[in-house]
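Aim 2 progress update. The chain analyzed this quarter is reproduced below.
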Amino acid sequence: MRFGPLKIPWIGKDSHQDDPYWDIFINSPPADLSNLVTEMIRNAPEGNVFPTKAELHTPEITSGHVKGMAQYFGAEMTGVVKLNANDAGKDEYYPFAVVCAVRAEYEPRESPGIGGQVPVQNGLFITFVLSAWIRELGFRATAAPDPDAEKLAAAAGLGRLDAKGRLVTQKFGSKVHVANIIRTDLPLAPDG
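Predicted structure tokens:
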């Protein structure tokens, strides 16, 4: 934005193009990954399951509560998928997966800088706190990366997969990041 000879660089849609540090912020990974919030969240212990299960409403109402909490924590899209025994994790079977997604202006897999990793950080926060809330209700829940996260997101009705297997949503197009998948035994109603 210009006011005579004065230019205000931070106002306007493409103001970052004039910023010499923008490319570093988006594309250059930090020298020490242990300084990142994402590493702190990934390395934090999950916590215990509360020994007494909470009294719940119907699975449909409980799913609504889970989605409301996810939205409160920052998820822009949330869905639930019913898993089958073939989708079992390492040691335990969880019947449901909660899938959360956030807008990603830059593709985190292609933008390793701090700015490019913001959606990953947001997703980690959301799934860490949401899985802790489910454990406080007395049900098992674990949040972990999943190579099939985008397939699960499509199965949850968050969007469709393109030819490359990437999630494309109606709300954000391909500018979306699917967070860690929460596997749980909390009785939920699947979407999709």
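Strands lie at 2-3, 6-7, 77-82, 96-103, 141-144, 160-161, 167-168, 176-178, 181-184. The helical segments are 22-27, 37-43, 59-73, 118-136, 149-155. These observations will guide the mutagenesis experiments scheduled for the next reporting period.
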